[in-house]
Amino acid sequence: MKKTVLVTGGAGYVGSHCCKAFATAGWNVVTLDNLSRGWCDAVRWGPLVECDIRNSTGVRAVLDTYKPDLVAHFAALAYVGESVADPAIYYDNNTRGTLALLESMRAAGCSRVLFSSTCASYGVPKHTPIDETHPQAPINPYGWSKMIIERMLEDFGRAYEMSSVSLRYFNAAGCDPDGELGERHEPETHAIPLAIEAARRPDRPFTILGTDFPTPDGSAIRDYIHVNDLAQAHLLAGDMLVARGGTHVFNLGTGVGTSVLELIKAVKRVSGDDPVVRRGPRRAGDPPMLVASFAKAKRELGWSPRQSGIDFIIETALRWSDSNPPA
Questions:
Q1: Cβ-based neighbour number of residue 201 at 10 Å
Q2: Residue limits of the NAD-dependent epimerase/dehydratase domain (predicted)?
Q3: Contact indicator for 3, 27 with CB cutoff of 8 Å
């Protein structure tokens, strides 16, 4: 029989790509999204239920109707800068919302959750590459909101036999190579789409947020991972949860860091256009370097990134951007 996954936040960037991957692998996919930051037209693989995860009555009805084997939980606010300026909405939406979701799952007898976590829970790295044993010490409310959820999942596992996998993403990037899905945020804060826009639109320069970091070229270094590689990791983790349960944590990255200045050069190389660049101050809550070790995911899930070369990431993002130009 086909397995069913309920995808919260499935109308968003990573969630929608994962919906496609689950459907392609033969799962029944049901999306639950309040559409506050998602896109209705990104829901193409199964039904969409418009509902907020904090609406316990609505979530319980969806769980009772579809009886999912797994909940893949992506619904969250995810802007570091916004979390610093307005932390209350992050603890309300991300942390309290997840608690409400978990309680709805308990009431419905649904005991497996695949959680979209973040490398922001590590804070400023003490060593690189970062593995899962690295201390978690977030430096922004977004990171804290996710780290608290990870602790909730550990506690729910011990107390209520709820199984979970927390996937700590590094920098999700790129777009569906088939062109069916892309990266759309309002406002857009992610480096690659902004750099592409600066290459195509000279009137919209790209701002480098900090050139005085303790890195080789002074700009921040990040580990960019293609969204399709993230989706494949979710499939493998979902199969593992259904097969044997437990409480697990995995980093999802490539082990390769790319600085912002290197990224600008890559966009020029791939697009043929020179992004217009200006220099600005650091953004509050940004560590200088985040690079993953994915050794545990390779060992236990059999996963490794296969589409995450920086040029391929930019190629897929560029194709999407050229086909769907920002207003």
A1: 14
A2: 5-253
A3: yes
- Which residues are known catalytic residues? 142
The residues, ordered by sequence, that sit 6+ positions from 36 with a Cβ below 8 Å of its Cβ are none
Q: What is the mean pLDDT of each run of 10 residues along the chain (327 residues)?
A: 95 97 98 96 97 98 98 95 94 98 98 97 94 96 97 98 97 96 87 95 95 95 98 98 97 98 98 96 86 98 97 97 83
What are the helix (H) ranges across the chain?
A: 13-24, 56-66, 80-85, 87-90, 97-108, 141-160, 191-200, 227-244, 260-271, 295-301, 310-323
- Strands 206-209, 112-118: pairing is unpaired
Domains annotated on the chain, with CATH: 4-173+224-252 (3.40.50.720)
pTM comes to 0.94
d(CA 220, CA 218): 7
**CA-to-CA dists, residue 297 to 5, 14, 72, 118, 292, angstroms:** 21, 18, 18, 15, 11
In angstroms, the Cα distances linking 33 to 55, 81, 216, 283 are 11, 23, 41, 29
* 312 burial via Cβ count (<10 Å: 0-12, 13-18, 19+): middle
Distance CA 91, CA 106 (A): 21
Q: How would DSSP label each residue in 137-205?
A: --SSHHHHHHHHHHHHHHHHHHHH--EEEEEEE-EEE---TTSS-----SS---HHHHHHHHHH-TTSP
